[in-house]
Amino acid sequence: MPGDTGFPFADAENDFIRMRRRQVLSRLAAWLRREPDDVSIMLPFDEVIDALGRLGERRLGLKVIELESIVGSVDRTRDFDRRFRPTSGRVRERWQRLALATRRGEAIPPIEVYRVGDLHFVIDGHHRVSVAHAMGLKTIDAYVTVIRTRISPEGIRYRGDLMVKDLRRIFLDRVPLTGEARAAIRFTDPWDYAELSESVEAWGFRLMQDEGELLDRATVARRWYEEEFVPVVRMLRQAAMIETQTEAEAYLWVICERYRLIRTHRWDDEVFTAVREQRR
Fold this sequence. Notes:
Layout (H helix, E strand, L loop, with lengths): L7 H25 L10 E2 H8 L1 E13 L3 E4 L18 H12 L7 E6 L2 E6 L1 H9 L4 E11 L11 H14 L4 H6 L6 H21 L5 H22 L8 H16 L6 H11 L1
Parallel strand pairs: 1-3, 3-5, 4-6
Antiparallel strand pairs: 2-6, 4-5
Helix pairs in contact: 1-3, 2-5, 3-4, 5-7, 7-8, 8-9, 9-10
């Protein structure tokens, strides 16, 4: 590597010092940019799984994985940052020992990880991952166990994203949509999932009152999507009332405005005229 002295022990020490310096500079840069506190924090595996809902697991065995795909840890989130740079001098002795062994070409055991979607979480081997980053490697050998979850991990970047996933999972427990209907309901603000849950349940209650029949959650969810959500979204598009927001965000906004302005759950020209005027 550039800047090496040719003495493995000294170079291993310098590797650690360089990684610590990068970690400190990264924290300073994040502070100067006023980035959220969780930008550089390693994703905690347990919190991710709690948010997504665990279904099961399957061992894949030994695989070669991308270092960039390793974003979290089972239990060592305080010792390393999101890029597996040491956050203190506490891990120095073991880190340098591994770096020295790597530089000498000694065999390094594979790490062990959980795979969630395209993301990997370290069970064992945090120091090895950190040293591999310091050496400029792109891949690492790992024993992989795949975790299946109820909600897709797609879109998770930072710890703050877990609230969105958690509230979406709860929403789908209360409103068990499937297929296209499930994919159509997307919010940026996680609390919108809770508000929509209550709205759908209220719609289902009125439906059961009208029909004099008890319906299960899956039936209410399906009928709400087909009989309420899709027609309203179609009308919103025809009225040019969906702009930058998602269909679900536009729907939630307009039903709240409808009830606030007119105190009714019906849909007619009077409703749309009042809501459209309010938006101007």
